[in-house]
Amino acid sequence: NADISLIGNTIFNNGMMIYLDPNYIGTGGFTSRKQLQEQLRIGGFYVVTRVEGTIGITGFQTKLQCIYQNT
To answer: For a surface tag, which of 27, 28, 36, 43 has the fewest beta carbons within 10 Å of its beta carbon?
Structure first.
């Protein structure tokens, strides 16, 4: 599963499918990335189960809670 913090936006809704690409977190080449993705479930498709948007002194922030579906 994944908890994600983003710069504020309004494009996410509960039930949406999103894809997280582990390549952007520095996991190495394709072979090692694929192995990490499968073993740690750090990439692939997730279903958004909760969206929270907050506006404060520091700006607009969106937090997502997601459940892992598959690679």
So the answer is: 28
